[in-house]
Amino acid sequence: MPSPSARPLPDNQPLTNQLSRFATLTELENSTFFREHQGQLRSILDMPQLFSPIQVGLPNQKFLRVVVWNIERGNRFDDVLFFLREHPLLASADVLLLNEADVGMVRTGNRHVGFELADELGFHCVYGAEYLEMTKGINEELNLPGENTTALHGNAILSRYPLKNSRILRLPTCFEPFHFHEKRYGSRICIVTEIEIQGKTVLLSTGHLEVRNSPSCRTRQTEAILAEFSQTTHPVIFGGDWNTNTFERGTKLKTLMSTARVLFTEPEKLKRVLRHPEEGHEPLFDRLVQCGFSFREFNDDQTTCSVELKGMEDAALLPAFLRSWVTRRVEQHSGFLYMRLDWLACRGMKLQGIVSTITGLERNGIPPSDHAPIVADVWFP
User: Fold this and answer.
1) Could you tell me the maximum CA-CA distance found in the chain, to the nearest angstrom?
2) What's the Cα-to-Cα distance from 61 to each of 94, 188, 254, 277, 342, rounded to whole Å?
3) What is the three-class DSSP state of 271?
4) Strand (E) positions, the chain?
5) Which of 23, 111, 214, 225 is the most buried (most CB within 10 A)?
6) What is d(CA 234, CA 249) in angstroms, rounded to the nearest whole number?
7) H/E/C letters for each residue in 79-126?
8) Domains defined for the chain, CATH in brackets
9) For 279, which DSSP code?
């Protein structure tokens, strides 16, 4: 298969330009345009994209080293690639479960982030699109020169082992991005694929759960993924950015309630909750355990992401007279919330060696992503 960089990416701009004309999803779905292009939209969003390299590195023989990493769309592609090549734990990975990977977005050089990483590293890859993007992104990205081409944003699984039976699960929608200022068409997904190890089938999966809603939303999305896994007795590895921030978000009332929680919860207690959302604050963990998954042994207790409080988009939902007061009050948290959003869970596998959150990655003083990667060595019981 030719190198991804040698193949022109499909241009979806005529399609996204038409989609952006519709103010609401209902208006779109009732249109002649939608009836004529529904099949094309389904093909773009529901068909997994596959890539196989010319040469693949040898996998580890006594364990499977799994990395879970939200790479922030591939904004700093060269830095992500550098650490995947040079960091001793990341460079020896057998499986990469990647969230937030662009395809044909001007903000990331109009490259296929997942395929190009796979090509450089010598990995097989399956890519699944969450969204067709109708904007260039947010903030300063809107002023970037040039235009998107394929205009996709999604997730990828890279593996030293060949992939088979790859599919995309579209998850229940709790937040409609078609009506958001970063206008998108699609929904959150989970990618599921299979590898063979010593004659045994293992399912690999990654899901990027909804951030702009609630723990109950993420639980519903997890239940949809677990329903897929209930159809097999094979071992399953499930990782990703599950956005387990413990907050209710998306409306003025929810924002006020969450703001009050930040302001009036004792800082050390809140830090504990955000580092350990599994302790009763995100029900999805209970559902995983009920369905035979283990997660505690495959994760440490380090945070994987920080959010600057004064820059949170929810602040726009607060009354103006509260904003300056809130800004002063958040100083008790040093202006940031530190959270564990990224996780790994397994069924039918055990921890074989290392489990680590790799914090402090920087190159030229800049981190490669706004999330830290997590690593675990797993094998059969």
Assistant:
1) 64
2) 10, 34, 49, 34, 26
3) helix
4) 49-51, 64-73, 95-103, 124-133, 152-159, 164-170, 184-186, 189-197, 200-207, 236-241, 305-308, 336-339, 342-347, 350-357, 374-379
5) 225
6) 36
7) HHHHHHHHCHHHHCCCEEEEEEEEECCHHHCCCEHHHHHHHHHCCEEE
8) 4-244+282-304+340-379 (3.60.10.10)
9) T
Alpha-carbon Rg of the chain, whole angstroms? 20
CB-count exposure of residue 59 (10 Å: 0-12, 13-18, 19+): middle
Show the tokens assigned to 299: 């994760």
Rounded-to-integer distance, Cα 15 and Cα 36, Å: 12
Compute the distance between CA of residue 349 and CA of residue 59 in angstroms, rounded to an integer: 17
Q: Phi and psi (nearest 5°) for 41? A: -65, -45
Q: Count Cα atoms within 13 angstroms, Cβ side, for 193.
A: 27
User: Phi and psi (nearest 5°) for 84?
Assistant: -70, -20
The two tokens of residue 308 are 């600057």
| CB-CB contact of 124 with 139 (8 Å) | no
pLDDT for 1 equals 54
